[in-house]
Structures are given as structure tokens and as C-alpha cells.
């Protein structure tokens, strides 16, 4: 037995789902390969986590669909042989032995147990998601990263990526990231105080004396990563003002900027 086959049995053993024959093969393999015990202990710990009672946590919207899409796009090993007959696929263990080998064969073929390991790993992932709410949020962010994060990655990967940082009055910083080749700009703020109730921050491209609205954004605990709406042009300054919820009703700033970052 190789280590991959043992891993399948170990997953089943941790979930107490092995047949009597597989249980015996599992114990014999473990006795012959004590170095594999670390895998057994890891699986046992994961199974214990699955058994622990936890408070239900509502997953973020769309996480199930995104997770299933990732699974569907991932090639699966141990697939059913395309030459297997429907009868053999749905047969009982005894019937499957006959279907898997020639008549009189004393060494019946064993069906790979890849799915047991896959199901065990998936169950472990779901346990973590349910047991730790922030884990679900983190997974959702990985599967569906915000547009601002995607844009920031594009900018940082561009050969002409540039950035500029200014200090804020309250001790924080604001950094503009931009790239002419992508035409995008992202503001990353640290230590930016939340606006008063009924107010929001609005972004602007300042072209000469003409400010152009680039959307509004929220602050979370002083941090913000905001993608400026519209295409940045050479020489634009990036500014932030405090406006009423939804942004300036006139399309022009109604207050002095709290952030101004020159890019030229």
C-alpha cells in the first residue's frame, strides 16, 4: 500500500466509516509504517473539530455558489473508469469484484477511494467556515475579491506602476496607486477617521481647476481601499472631500479637501 491509498483509509478511519476489511488493511498499514501516524493524528483532530458543537454563522451571500464553482473547475483524481459499465458502477461490493476482474481472478481490483479523502477535506473546510465566522468572510474575499483589491493588484503588476503618499492631519496616511497603462487609480488610507453620521467621503480627479467626481467610499476602522471611478489622466491630482450621503448633489465639492495627492 502506498501513502496515498493509506491517506484515503485514514480519512475513513477518522470518520468511523471503514468496512471491516478496510479497517484491517488500515491497521496493518499503520503498523508497517509508523511514520504515517502524523497523518492519522491530523485527521483525528479534524474529525474532532467536525464533532464540536458551534454557533451557527450565516455565510456571506454567494459563497456557496463560488465554492461550488471552484470545485467544478478543479480536475478530480480517481475518476470512474470511462470503460466501466453502468452495472459495475452501481454494483454491490461483491458484484463489483466480479465486474472488476476476470472470472477466477484471485486478486480482485479495488476501486480507488479518492472521493473519501475529497469529502473529508471538504467537510474540514466547512467546519472551519461554520466554526469561525471570520473564516467564511476570508474565503469569500478570496473567491470574490473587491474591485478595489483587484484593481490594486493590476496596478502593482503593471510595469509603469506609481504611488505617492501624504500624511493626514490625524496622524494617518493616504497613498495613491496608479498606472497609466491600466488607466486606474486606487486610494489606500490608514488612520482616516470615519465621517460624521449622514456624511461620506467622495473621491475626485482634479484636472487643473476642474474636479471630476470619482465615487464615494466607506471607512472601516480607519482603513479604506477605494477604486476611483473613471479613467485617470496624466497630471490628475487625487482628492477626497466630505460630502452628504450619496455624494455631492451638485457634482462639485461642497467642502475643502481632507486629502490631496499630486501625481505629477
Automatic annotation (TrEMBL):
Keywords: Cell membrane, Membrane, Transcription, Transcription regulation, Transmembrane, Transmembrane helix. PANTHER family: ANTI-SIGMA-K FACTOR RSKA. Residues 244-264 are annotated as: Disordered. It comes from Microbacterium algeriense. Pfam families: RskA_C. The keyword Transmembrane applies. It is found in: Cell membrane; Membrane. It is a single-pass membrane protein. The chain crosses the membrane at residues 119-139. Coiled coil: none annotated. This is Regulator of SigK. Residues 121-257 form the Anti-sigma K factor RskA C-terminal domain.
Amino acid at each position: 500500500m502506498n501513502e496515498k491509498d493509506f491517506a484515503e483509509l485514514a480519512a475513513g478511519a477518522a470518520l468511523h466509516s471503514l468496512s471491516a476489511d478496510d479497517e484491517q488493511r488500515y491497521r496493518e498499514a499503520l503498523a508497517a509504517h509508523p511514520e504515517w501516524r502524523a497523518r492519522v493524528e491530523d485527521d483525528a483532530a479534524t474529525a474532532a473539530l467536525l464533532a464540536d458543537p458551534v454557533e451557527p454563522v450565516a455565510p456571506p451571500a454567494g459563497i456557496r455558489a463560488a465554492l461550488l464553482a471552484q470545485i467544478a473547475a478543479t480536475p478530480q483524481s480517481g475518476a470512474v473508469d470511462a470503460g466501466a459499465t453502468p452495472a459495475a458502477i452501481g454494483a454491490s461490493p461483491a458484484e463489483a469484484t466480479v465486474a472488476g476482474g476476470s472470472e477466477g481472478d484471485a486478486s480482485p481490483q479495488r476501486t480507488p477511494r479518492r472521493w473519501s479523502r475529497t469529502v473529508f477535506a471538504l467537510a474540514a473546510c466547512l467546519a472551519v467556515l461554520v466554526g469561525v465566522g471570520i473564516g467564511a468572510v476570508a474565503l469569500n474575499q478570496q473567491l470574490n475579491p473587491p474591485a478595489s483589491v483587484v484593481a490594486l493588484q493590476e496596478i502593482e503588476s503593471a510595469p509603469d506602476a506609481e504611488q505617492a503618499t501624504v500624511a493626514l492631519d490625524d496622524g494617518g496616511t493616504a497613498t495613491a496607486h496608479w498606472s497609466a497603462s491600466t488607466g486606474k487609480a486606487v486610494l489606500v488610507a490608514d488612520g482616516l477617521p470615519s465621517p460624521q453620521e449622514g456624511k461620506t467621503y467622495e473621491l475626485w480627479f482634479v484636472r487643473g481647476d476642474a474636479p471630476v467626481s470619482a465615487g464615494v467610499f466607506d471607512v472601516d476602522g480607519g482603513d479604506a481601499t477605494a477604486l476611483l471611478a473613471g479613467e485617470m489622466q496624466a497630471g490628475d491630482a487625487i482628492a477626497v472631500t466630505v460630502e452628504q450621503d450619496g455624494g455631492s448633489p451638485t457634482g462639485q465639492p461642497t467642502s475643502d479637501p481632507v486629502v490631496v495627492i499630486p501625481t505629477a
